[in-house]
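Sample intake — DUF3800 domain-containing protein
Collected from: Amycolatopsis mongoliensis
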Amino acid sequence: MSPVEIACDESGSEGENLVGGETDVFAHAGVRLTPEAARACVSEIRARIGSPAEEYKANHLLRGKHRPVLEWLLDPAGPLAGHGHVHLTDKTFFAVRAAVTLLAEHGTDAMARTLHRAGPTAFGPDRWASFLAAFTSVLRLRQRRGVTTSPEEFFALVSELAGPGEAGEIMALLSQGADRVAAYRARLATDPGLVPVLDPLVPAVIHTVRHFSADGTPVALVHDEQLALTGERVLQLKVTLGHRLAGVRFVDSRSDARVQVADFLAGVARRIASDALNGRGDPRLTALLQSFVDADSVWNALSS
């Protein structure tokens, strides 16, 4: 069976920098369009917006005066209906889930959701932020400037937070994960193909491929240039996905209209989702986006 080409791009990528960065949502988009259909979509967007800019980005669509164009793009009768897919990642929840999965012997999504919900109230905003920053620091071999936490310091903090209540009981379980952190750091130092547990890109790519190959058709990705998708990680993707992934080809988004459309979708999805996450969501745009969102996104609920 011949593979189908899926064009992809992302928005909000900051690598393993999940907390304290510029964005709180990561969005990975894939579109299944012919080159002709994609060029027609981009041309229509240009005609409707009328900006002289040489390259259009998602922020053009997100301007208030271009709201009708954005609604047209996401509409059930629009050019992306049935052809677009978005995997969303709430970066803070992703970090909490990574902590629970790695540190607790039998960590579950339900446990992560509980800690994500109860942690800020149980420990206070400052101590909760310190826990998240320390966790993301201890799992990185290359530390961010000015942010360094040793495993010993991190587990001392976790032990301080362990105690009664839902969040405290989960912290008690996490405090037993020192050996698992040491093993992970050792693998990270020696295995170039290991996908860092703090990087949401590879999991999102896996979900994109699985979505578009659900009918058995293999997928060939045409992806915007992305340094995080190293040769070793692409090989690991092929191992994980098997026959579903026929290959990965990187292009400059300006050279492929399909990738430009994926860039539009990823960018507007990230902004709409971020607004919803922070309590300022637009009900109309949120509803329009919902039809594109992967059900297994790392998200409590788009409307939450």
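Post-analysis note: The chain is about 50% helix and 10% strand.
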